[in-house]
Amino acid sequence: MDLRDYGWNEELSAQFEAYAQRGLVPARVVKQSRDLSTLVTPLGELPGKVSGKFRHETAEQADFPVVGDWVTIEPAGDNLALIHAVLPRRSAFTRKAAGETVEAQVAAANVDTVFLVSGLDGDFNLRRIERYLTTAWTSAAEPIIVLNKADLCPDLQNVLTAVEGVAPGVPVVAVSALSEDGLKDLEPFIVPRKTVALLGSSGVGKSTLINRLLGEERLPTAPMSDAAEGRGRHTTTARELVLLPGGALLIDTPGMRELQLWADEEGLDRTFDDIEKLGARCRFPDCRHDREPGCAVRAAVTAGALDPRRLESYVKLRRELSFMELKKDVKKRRQQEKAAGRRFASMVKEIKKHKPRYQ
User: In the 8-state DSSP scheme, what is residue 205?
Assistant: First the structure.
């Protein structure tokens, strides 16, 4: 199996050199399901799992292998490979893990282009597109907005204008995966040996879109679950990388009912570039565009040059990011306190061990 077909290049070869001296083999994760990975390797396709040492030394779940990762492996017999390390990621699409835990969850790694897929049906939402864009810009991959189910949209041109208004400078492509209308417009972004990840809410038609690009019904799909609202049913349960006939690589991911941000200020600023430019004209450099005098952003809303709902979305996402940063700081301090406690306990134990005993 030629790893160059899966994106292997000179940069990766240089990163792998030290591992090659230890007799390890490079591989790419093409499917992930719980603790088991499916790997493409020079030896063929193999199932793989992380080594005991890797599991013991890796504290953060986000550092474990995900689809798209390049890893170093050791064939362990019984048709199994042990994963010893993950090579540095060029990009990573990351969100906050579900629940109360303050932890990142990586959906896909080493992605060149992100197709942010949104369905033009009853579940269409501009605010969700802004949220996905913020995460995409943070990932270091190039975002493309793909509006699927165009055949269900009676006012397509106005919708395209609205989407372009919340995604300045980002290509927007309308398609219908079922009828294959518009798929040729995606071809410039599907390049041999480059990786595209499809991300979006449940039921937007990602699997159907991939099947059309593959030219076969490889991934399972399901019909609409709610005809009145136009919501599709989520079918993908495991992340998977597939090789297209033209040589490009596509990653399908399970649909997300909710995308909790794990992003940075730069990603937010790029998503709301229009507001950032207006904010540069505010009287105060730290203006929050709330009640401060001389706010150029609020003046634009009053003048009708900026949609108030876009400003509301910007303020909401910025507050969400700020709150997440505070939670990260609290978690970091607690980890530092625990580490200091362990060091102190170890020191006391060592002192007691060598303390002279007097009769």
Answer: S
pTM of the complete model beyond 0.85: no
Three-state SS at 331: helix
Kindly write down the DSSP assignment for every residue of 305-317, as one continuous string. SS-HHHHHHHHHH
Q: Which of 100, 86, 74 is nearest to 32 (CA)?
A: 86
Which pLDDT score is estimated for 232? 45
Q: Which domains does the chain have, with CATH numbers?
A: 3-86 (2.40.50.140), 92-252 (3.40.50.300), 272-359 (1.10.40.50)
**pLDDT tens digit sequence for 165-218:** 999 889 999 999 989 999 999 999 999 999 999 988 888 888 889 899 988 776
Pairing verdict, β 70-75 and 25-33:
antiparallel
Structural contact between residues 119 and 224, judged by C-beta atoms closer than 8 angstroms = no
* Closest among 248, 281, 271, 263 to 321, alpha carbons compared: 263
Which residues fall within 8 angstroms of residue 286, CB to CB, at 6 or more apart?
none
